[in-house]
Amino acid sequence: MTRMLIIGPPGSGKGTQAERISERLGVVAISTGDIFRANVKGETPLGVEAKKYMDAGDFVPDSVTNKMVRDRLGEDDVDGGFLLDGYPRTTAQVDYLDGILATGEQKLDVVLQLTADDEELVTRLLGRAKETGRSDDNEAVIRHRLDLYHGQTEAVVAKYAERGILTQVDGIGGIDEVTDRVMQAIKAAQSA
Ligand SMILES: Nc1ncnc2c1ncn2[C@@H]1O[C@H](COP(=O)(O)OP(=O)(O)O)[C@@H](O)[C@H]1O
Ligand SMILES: [Mg+2]
């Protein structure tokens, strides 16, 4: 049973690595970005609300995101553990997640931070824009998302560092190479 978070700036490879960790550890990967995008695509009320923020590279309001995550974490497939990708991104979300977990007397085992410098991230995301056409992958919006990461999500990372459960992994390199680093880091954290 593993309960984990993967945190990193946009373009750091969270989604790619989360999928691999999920397969290897047999835990369900939950990406708030993917859930929002599925709702945008399906034109649900949640999607219609979220789209306004996502297209601008802004965070969807905490009240909306928190409720969505609470509902998702209540589903049956989460019983064997989870890996959250893209949440929490604000310190208010950290507090909210603490509340959800405390209710079930659960605790986080590992928080992984994937690191990469801004120029590498912008290059990657502009490349991804050509392939996937994600509506928030244009340079101005990418820079804004990076600003929010530095301005808000780094404070989230600091909180977990204070708790002694943060593990940093260098996200620069080939996908397999990064996966090897990630799996080693998880092992080391779990035996610590
Ligand atoms: N925890 C969250 N809080 C607020 N907004 C979120 C959260 N997770 C995802 N979003 C919204 O979805 C968008 C895309 O998220 P995501 O796919 O995780 O992007 P990336 O991994 O490129 O940073 C974000 O820019 C934001 O608008
Ligand atoms: Mg992602």
UniProtKB/TrEMBL annotation:
This is Adenylate kinase. It is found in: Cytoplasm. One of its GO terms (molecular function) is AMP kinase activity. ATP binds at residues 11-16, 128, 173. Its EC number is 2.7.4.3. Monomer. Belongs to the adenylate kinase family. Catalyzes the reversible transfer of the terminal phosphate group between ATP and AMP. Plays an important role in cellular energy homeostasis and in adenine nucleotide metabolism. Residues 31-60 are annotated as: NMP. AMP binds at residues 32, 37, 58-60, 86-89, 93, 134, 145. It catalyses: AMP + ATP = 2 ADP. Consists of three domains, a large central CORE domain and two small peripheral domains, NMPbind and LID, which undergo movements during catalysis. The LID domain closes over the site of phosphoryl transfer upon ATP binding. Assembling and dissambling the active center during each catalytic cycle provides an effective means to prevent ATP hydrolysis. It comes from the Bacteria. InterPro entries: Adenylat/UMP-CMP_kin, Adenylat_kinase_CS, P-loop_NTPase.
